[in-house]
Amino acid sequence: MTISNPRKFRASSTWLFAVWLAFAALLPHAAAAQSAAQGLSDADKKQIKDYNLNEDVFGRLLAATKEARTQGIHSQANPDPSKVHSLDDLAAQALAGDPRIAPLIKKYDFTPREFMLANIALVNAAIVVQSRNDPEMAKSVDQSKVNMANVAFYESHQAQIAALMRGDK
C-alpha cells in the first residue's frame, strides 16, 4: 500500500503514530517509513503487499514490542529517503538507531527484513482501517496496494493492539 499524498497522511497520523509506537518502538515513524518506502523497488513493494500477517508473527511482534518497552528502546529516527533503495536499506537504517534492536528482533526469530515487513504490513492495515472514518485520508490510500487479509487480521486483533497501546501487561 502506498500513500498518494504524504502531507494528508501526516496530518491525520496521530492515532497511527500511537499504533506505530506500540508495535514499532524499534522502527521509524510510520509516515517517514511510508515516505521512504516510495523509493523501493517494485519487487520490494510487491513483497510488502503480499506479506500476510498471522498469529505467529503477531505474537512475536507483541513480545518484541513489550520487551523493547522494558529495555527503554524508543522510536528510531526517520529514515533518510536518499539512502533507501531497498527494503533491506530501510531495515538497516532502523536497526542502526540502537545497538539493542538487532539482538532483540533476532531473539524473536525475525530477520531485519521480516521484522520490517511485519511492521509495515500492520501499519498499512491500520491506515486502511482508520481511513474508513477519515475521508481525506481515504483519498490518499492506494487501494490497489491494500492487502485485505492483513486488514481483516488487524481488525480481529484490535483489542490486543489497543491494550498494547495503553501499556497493559
Question: Which secondary structure elements does this structure contain, and how are they paired or packed?
Answer:
Layout: H1 6-11, H2 14-23, H3 30-37, H4 42-50, H5 55-71, H6 87-96, H7 101-107, H8 112-131, H9 135-140, H10 148-156, H11 158-166
Tell me what you see in this structure:
There is one protein chain. The chain is built from eleven helices and no strands. It is mainly α and 169 residues long. The chain has one domain. α8 packs across α10. The longest helix has 20 residues. The N terminus is likely disordered.
Name a few traits of the molecule:
about 170 residues; mainly alpha; 11 helices; disordered N terminus
- How big a fraction of the residues is strand? under 5%
Number of helices: 11
Query: What is the tally of beta strands?
Result: 0
Low-confidence regions: 2-31
**Helical residue percent?**
55-70%
Note the gap between the termini.
31 Å
General form: globular
Structural class: mainly alpha
Largest sheet: none
> Radius of gyration, Cα only, in angstroms?
15 Å
On the 0-100 scale, what is the average pLDDT?
Answer: 77
Total individual domains: 1
What string, H for helix and E for strand, traces the elements in order?
A: HHHHHHHHHHH
Task: Compose a concise summary of this entry.
This protein is an all-alpha fold and 169 residues long. It is built from eleven helices and no strands.
